Target: Sensor histidine kinase
Amino acid sequence: MSAEPGPRDSNQWDRGFLLWDCYFAVVWVGTLVLALSVEAPGSAARPGSAALVVLLLVWYVVSGRPVLLTEGADQRRAVRYLTVATALFVASGVLITETRLLTFALVPQCFIALRIHRAMVTLAVINVAPVAGWALLWRPDAQNVFLNSVGAAVSLVFGAALGTWIIHIIAQSQERADLIAELEASREEVARLSTERGALAERERMSREIHDTLAQGFTSLLMLVQAVDAELDHDVAAARRHLELMQATARQNLAEARSLVAGRAPDDLRGGSLPDALRRVAARHGAAVTVTGTARPLPPGLEVVALRSCQEALTNAAKHAGPDAEVRVALGYRPGGLTLVVSDSGCGFDTGAHHEGFGLRGLRTRAAEVSGTAEVVSAPGAGTAVTVRLPLPEPDGAPDAHDRPEPPDSPAPSGPSAVPVPRRSPAPHESPEPSEPPERTAP
Model:
């Protein structure tokens, strides 16, 4: 049937071939019984025909079955097997017409082992040759010849139909096996791609976490080292204050690193609300915080996005706004949404120009992961405003009184973190990435 010989795939045809063996066995046993029981015109016809049937069975077991179990059977082996089998069958059919019952066993084998045109030729020989040989050898009357000829014609048509069905079943079984193999390969490919995508997503998440926590802490430490180096000779007290702040920043970085390793919430969010966490972060940068609306517990993922966005915006303001810039943080709770605005009165930048950096790209990605948006509005000399809008689930109970502003918090917590981080001039290679053209100018 197939162009290339080889073992058949493990499919329904192979698993069901034992049924074919049973079918062939029943046909051969029935033929042998008929050959031994019917009356024959000659004394040697009955045993001779039975012997040929037995030889045909042995030939099937020795040569035929291995051929039938081979996909795209070697046509030379198949032709050799069916040539010998057809010769034995025709000889037995010439001696006794009842042995033509073996036609029902040989016809399926022709279509299993041979290509279609050879199978059709063999089918014609199997049906025509025994009747012609029987008529020439025994010279029966015209009625018997007619009846046997009609039977041969019906058997020929039936064999062609059966062969077509067999070809269809074999092709369908092979297609099913190919489809299963293709599906298994596709499933393995999907699993591989999913694993790679998961690893990439986790790598991107860790990159953002490290950038928004440890990298910012190290940046602050560098700036404090520079400040201490400049103050050692003429302002020892200020240098000591900055050394204390370096110690507090290092401890904060260590806590954030432990949180990342353990997969916990950020250190600033543990044991408090989002406004409290923003106040602690803003205090380390000397920024004031204003909260509008009624604060309420939010899903942890949204609180993490808001906190990290605030940290990124404050770090950019510390690096690029200038030492005298005023930085403000505004957090607004409103029905269905949370708005975070971090603005400064620093030097600003051209949002239409090309900028290198990872921070604002990560900020936008964080917001998009929770169906939010991040917008950067700035202009040279007019400051910068970073606005993050996040969707919130509808709260249960009364609507928020979002029009009642709380007074600005004083960035003066106890401990070394109360000392503002000294600012330095902007570093061009750390500038935020470009966004859409500004629609407004931050105050």
